[in-house]
Amino acid sequence: MKKREITSVLYEYNSPAELEKVYERLIENAKKAAENAYAPYSKFKVGAAVLLENDEIVIGNNQENAAYPSGLCAERVAIFYANAKYPDKSIKAIAVAAINNNSFVKEPISPCGSCLQVMLESEKKTKSSIKVFLYGQKQTLMAESINQFLPINFNGDLLLK
Ligand code: THU
């Protein structure tokens, strides 16, 4: 038996103001999108903002449904909308912000596994990495690629051989 240890690298910022302007603006877009989420059941409102290679920002927010599984997370709404509108543009970055009990979460939340899997698909499709910014009032986290969240993953390379 051999032990394999896997390390993830994340960067912590006290405030989005420490980031390059373009990413600060991306987080602002995610925060604004969170305010417009449709989350009457969980009351957990999430916003996502996607930065494309043409420097356009596309936003999304969670859309819930009385039939619970019919709803969708903010990240996938944003990514699918970006893919529908700009099918050939790669995603440079995504920012996520969440509101719980009427205020932005203190500690950032992570995207769920299904959203990470969709982000991974985008990275593989365009052979480029996506920076992830997770906003919290106390700190903002940044990862340089989806690999930091899913170092072991299932992807199309395994199917297309
Ligand atoms: N949700 C997101 O939109 N993104 C995440 O990263 C985590 C969870 C949504 C799904 C559901 O509408 C609500 O938050 C509670 O799980």
Structure description:
The chain has helices at 21-35, 74-85, 113-126; strands at 11-13, 45-52, 57-61, 91-100, 103-104, 131-135, 140-143. The protein has 161 residues and is of the alpha+beta class. It has one domain: Cytidine Deaminase, domain 2 (3-Layer(aba) Sandwich). Strands 1, 2, 3, 4, 5, 6 and 7 form a 7-stranded mixed beta sheet that branches. Strand 4 and strand 5 form a beta hairpin. The chain is globular. Tetrahydrodeoxyuridine (THU) binds next to helix 2.
Short description:
Helices cover 25% and strands 23% of the residues. It is of the alpha+beta class.
The profile of the biggest β sheet is: 7 strands, mixed
**Secondary-structure element order, N to C:** EHEEHEEHEE
List how many beta strands DSSP finds.
Answer: 7
Mean pLDDT: 97
**CATH architecture call:** 3-Layer(aba) Sandwich
Ends apart, CA distance between termini: 29 Å
Structural domains: how many: 1
Count of runs of 4 or more consecutive helical residues: 3
CATH fold annotation: Cytidine Deaminase, domain 2
The hetero molecules present are: tetrahydrodeoxyuridine
Shape: globular
Poorly predicted runs: none
Query: Strand percentage, roughly?
Result: 15-25%
User: What is the fourth-level CATH superfamily?
Assistant: Cytidine Deaminase, domain 2
Radius of gyration: 16 Å
Structural category is: alpha+beta
- The CATH class name reads Alpha Beta
Helix % is 25-40%
